[in-house]
């Protein structure tokens, strides 16, 4: 069985309430996966994606979901892990947490990958390392994964071709190809791994 709870991840009061509801039902929390993000894809001729024209309100909105949301969830859910002296936090970053967006793959759209996403994902890796170091003695392991793009039928063909040319394996990830790595990091099989950012990008970031 699984249960869903709806809340605004950027609002501390709502996170606190959800935490209390889950704790009341399950008594403890073993694993937290921080995965929320706003990822706007570059669109043809959309000049607002360029850094010098990027809207500050949009910056604040995206940071509040992608980074502040992960901070708030970690802040509350780690309380149960501290009490139980055991827990796992897995943060979902991106290949853009270790490299900058290559704007050339969007040149045919005359647009850019916006600044917010990459900066947020770099921050997620920083949060991962901070929490891993701070709570290792509490037997709480914190890691992140940095996946690349997933193959989808509706992707722009020119974009897909340009991206594949940047990846040594010459392909994007298959649907479901990240599942086993997530399971590994959320299990005792990875009991001696903490503070790490596992990059799953087909080799894109190595060259």
Question: What does this entry look like structurally?
Answer:
Helix 3 links the parallel strand 2 (87-92) and strand 3. The protein is of the alpha/beta class and 207 residues long. The chain has helices at residues 12-26, 56-84, 115-135, 157-164, 179-185; strands at 31-34, 87-92, 140-147, 197-200. The chain contains five helices and four strands. Helix 1 (12-26) runs parallel beside helix 2. Strands 1-2-3-4 form a four-stranded parallel sheet, sandwiched between helices. The longest helix has 29 residues, at 56-84. The protein is globular, with a radius of gyration of 18 Å. The termini are far apart.
Task: Label this structure with key terms.
alpha/beta; four-stranded parallel sheet; 207 residues
How do the strands and helices of this protein lay out in sequence?
Layout: H1 12-26, E1 31-34, H2 56-84, E2 87-92, H3 115-135, E3 140-147, H4 157-164, H5 179-185, E4 197-200
Parallel strand pairs: 1-2, 2-3, 3-4
């Amino acid at each position: 069985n699984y249960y869903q709870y709806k809340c605004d991840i950027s609002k501390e009061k709502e996170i606190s309430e959800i935490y209390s509801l889950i704790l009341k039902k399950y008594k403890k929390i073993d694993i937290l996966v921080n995965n929320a993000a706003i990822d706007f894809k570059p669109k043809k001729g959309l000049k607002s994606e360029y850094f010098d024209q990027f809207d500050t309100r949009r910056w604040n909105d995206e940071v509040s979901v992608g980074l502040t949301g992960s901070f708030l969830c970690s802040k509350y859910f780690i309380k149960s892990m501290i009490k139980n002296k055991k827990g796992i936090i897995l943060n979902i970053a991106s290949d853009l947490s270790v490299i900058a967006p290559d704007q050339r793959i969007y040149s045919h759209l005359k647009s850019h990958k916006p600044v917010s996403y990459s900066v947020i994902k770099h921050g997620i890796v920083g949060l991962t390392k901070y929490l891993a170091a701070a709570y290792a003695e509490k037997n709480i392991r914190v890691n992140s994964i940095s996946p690349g793009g997933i193959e989808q039928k509706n992707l722009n063909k020119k974009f897909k071709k340009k991206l594949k040319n940047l990846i040594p394996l010459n392909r994007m990830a298959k649907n479901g190809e990240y599942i086993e790595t997530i399971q590994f990091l959320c299990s005792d099989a990875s009991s001696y791994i903490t503070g790490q950012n596992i990059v799953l990008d087909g080799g894109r970031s190595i060259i």
